[in-house]
């Protein structure tokens, strides 16, 4: 009887734990973007798993290589980047998560005019032994056209983390 009670208790608590993990990963993703938005390279690097892979035109391997490749976003006159998760999915075992959503890069062309580039990012997060979530895989793709109203709203909305 005691085993049945424990099993029922665990079954009832599982959705709560999963909801907490979704919230944790969502807020980690927003914090990751905030580090880039604030041009804080040191904070940015704390979101990266040491074995992370970022896939773009090439594959960047490891936190040091990724951080070096992203230097442009941390210089005063570099482009500004912002992203927000529209979707967060956490595996039932609570060890891996996927985030996906819109991103925007704002830069200046040779005439100083503002240029916006939009796209979609996908990140895979791994829960560390200390309970912290860190990015292990990241890839983005440019948008085929102008972002829709929902994507703009996600990116420009208020953060509640």
Describe, in plain words, how this protein is organized in 3D.
This protein is of the alpha+beta class. The protein has one domain: Nuclear Transport Factor 2, Chain: A. The protein contains four helices and seven strands; from the N terminus they run H-H-E-E-H-E-E-E-E-E-H. It has helices at about 1-35, 40-45, 65-70, 150-155; strands at about 50-55, 60, 80-85, 85-90, 95-110, 115-125, 135-140. Strands 1, 2, 3, 4, 5, 6 and 7 form a seven-stranded mixed β-sheet that branches. The longest helix is centred in the first third of the chain and has 36 residues, at about 1-35. The radius of gyration is 18 Å and the shape is globular. The termini are far apart. Mean pLDDT is about 90; it is low at about 5-15.
Order of helices and strands: HHEEHEEEEEH
Number of strands: 7
CATH class placement? Alpha Beta
- The CATH architecture is Roll
What proportion strand?
Answer: 25-35%
Q: What spatial form do the alpha-carbon principal axes imply?
A: globular
Number of separate structural domains: 1
Regions with pLDDT < 50 over 5+ consecutive residues? 4-14
**CATH third-level topology:** Nuclear Transport Factor 2, Chain: A
| Share of residues in helices | 25-40%
Tally of helical segments: 4
């Amino acid at each position: 009887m005691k085993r049945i009670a424990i099993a029922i208790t665990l079954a009832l608590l599982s959705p709560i734990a999963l909801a907490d993990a979704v919230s944790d990963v969502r807020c980690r993703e927003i914090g990751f973007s905030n580090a880039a938005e604030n041009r804080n390279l040191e904070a940015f690097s704390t979101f990266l798993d040491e074995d992370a892979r970022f896939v773009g035109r090439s594959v960047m391997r490891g936190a040091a290589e990724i951080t070096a490749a992203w230097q442009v976003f941390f210089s005063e006159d570099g482009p500004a980047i912002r992203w927000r998760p529209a979707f967060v999915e956490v595996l039932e075992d609570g060890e891996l998560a996927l985030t996906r959503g819109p991103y925007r890069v704002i830069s200046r062309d040779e005439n100083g005019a503002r240029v916006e580039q939009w796209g979609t990012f996908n990140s895979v997060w791994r829960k560390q032994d200390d309970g912290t979530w860190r990015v292990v895989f990241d890839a983005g793709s440019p948008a085929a056209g102008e972002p829709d109203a929902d994507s703009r709203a996600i990116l420009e909305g208020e953060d509640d983390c």
